[in-house]
Write a structure and sequence with these properties.
Leucine-rich Repeat Variant
Length: 208
């Protein structure tokens, strides 16, 4: 189905979770090779709107995250457009509401990495203001046996550590230091060590 028709389907059937989910999955598949066409058709707006309305449904959250990652990966302009559409709130809500779900946390954390980790100080401040830190650390704690989730969480925290003392204090207060040290030890994740050093801790989690 052409992108414009899928967008219209989502917008016209927004209350139907099954239809919205199927349309988002189709857009996610197309986004691998037709990014510009989908962005021009307004797919990102429809996906973010569905994400916001149906944030309590894991299948919608997962599909929206995958689609938005596929649209924005290796494309800064698309990333900025999706952020401007208001994706941060639904991402935080998805992590908070579905923290026990390994699949949803993996999708949401991956979206955070692709959309926000390479951003500027304003984006990092926006994440803190939106309450993203708590759900990120909570997902990190719950799913710490998963190397993939740990890797995403470490990358996000490493980014949040950059250049701001208040953010560093917030990360420490959220209990991230022990999780970063464990990720460094158990999984050998370099970004965990980098985040720890930025926070003033050794790779073992002791204050330097």
């Amino acid at each position: 189905m052409p992108p414009a028709m899928l967008v219209s389907l989502i917008e016209g059937q927004m209350g139907n979770v099954a239809i919205v989910t199927a349309a988002i999955k189709a857009l996610a598949m197309q986004a691998k090779s037709r990014k510009d066409e989908l962005m021009n058709a307004g797919a990102y707006r429809a996906i973010v709107a569905a994400f916001r309305i149906h944030e309590s449904y894991e299948v919608v959250c997962q599909g929206a995250c995958v689609a938005l990652v596929n649209l924005s990966i290796r494309n800064g302009a698309h990333r900025d457009t999706i952020i401007a559409a208001g994706v941060l709130g639904p991402l935080v809500a998805a992590l908070r509401m579905h923290e026990a779900s390994k699949s949803t946390c993996m999708c949401a954390l991956t979206a955070f990495v692709i959309l926000f980790s390479s951003g500027n100080a304003a984006l990092r401040e926006a994440m803190i203001a939106a309450g993203a830190l708590g759900p990120i650390v909570s997902a990190f704690r719950i799913h710490r046996p998963s190397r993939m989730i740990c890797s995403c969480a470490c990358e996000i925290l490493r980014s949040l550590c950059k250049g701001n003392t208040s953010r560093k204090k917030a990360i420490i207060a959220a209990g991230a230091v022990s999780l970063l040290a464990q990720a460094s030890c158990d999984h050998g994740i370099n970004t965990a060590r980098s985040a720890l050093f930025s926070l003033g801790f050794s790779a073992e989690g002791t204050r330097m």
